[in-house]
């Protein structure tokens, strides 16, 4: 085989090798970028979980402290979890129970500070703790993500109250 044919084949192989190496480098680069993106997502998720845990622990601590204060005077803490969509129900419930003498036993967990301010102004005997979770405000449809998140948080708080030997009655404001 003549040398020029061998040289031509060698050039083709070198060109192919060059293009395959560029292709391989591109794949490695894309893989590294995807890995960095996944690591960033994992870091954000860990940060959100830590923030969630810290917020929830603060709410749990406040709830336990308030519930213990209620237990000093009463045998039972009346507990419910509300958000701003339920304010008309809450006010109706409070109006209908005002003469029962139970408002000092109530512990509301709400998802917004405005509700807490309204309760403190209008119903000073009712204890309110704010769960700073804006995604849980508004009407939550049964079995949808927001509703389930609300119920999980409620369960975590209830569990902590029970583990601190606090007698509770869980109630909903849309019924008497």
TrEMBL record:
One of its GO terms (molecular function) is glycosyltransferase activity. Keywords: Membrane, Transmembrane, Transmembrane helix. InterPro entries: Nucl-diP-sugar_transferase, UDP-D-xylose:L-fucose_XylT. The chain crosses the membrane at residues 12-32. One of its GO terms (cellular component) is Golgi apparatus. Residues 102-174 form the Nucleotide-diphospho-sugar transferase domain. This is Nucleotide-diphospho-sugar transferase domain-containing protein. It comes from Octopus vulgaris.
């Amino acid at each position: 085989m003549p040398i020029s044919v061998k040289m031509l084949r060698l050039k083709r192989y070198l060109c192919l090798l060059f293009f395959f190496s560029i292709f391989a480098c591109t794949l490695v680069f894309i893989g590294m970028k995807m890995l960095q993106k996944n690591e960033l997502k994992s870091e954000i998720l860990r940060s959100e979980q830590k923030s969630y845990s810290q917020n929830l622990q603060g709410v749990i601590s406040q709830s336990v402290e308030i519930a213990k204060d209620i237990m000093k005077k009463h045998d039972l803490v009346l507990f419910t979890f509300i958000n701003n969509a339920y304010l008309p129900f809450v006010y109706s419930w409070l109006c209908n129970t005002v003469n029962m003498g139970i408002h000092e036993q109530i512990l509301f967990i709400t998802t917004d500070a405005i509700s807490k301010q309204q309760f403190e102004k209008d119903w000073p005997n009712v204890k309110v703790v704010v769960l700073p979770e804006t995604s849980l405000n508004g009407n939550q449809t049964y079995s949808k993500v927001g509703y389930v998140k609300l119920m999980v948080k409620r369960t975590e708080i209830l569990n902590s109250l029970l583990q601190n030997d606090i007698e509770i009655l869980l109630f909903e404001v849309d019924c008497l």
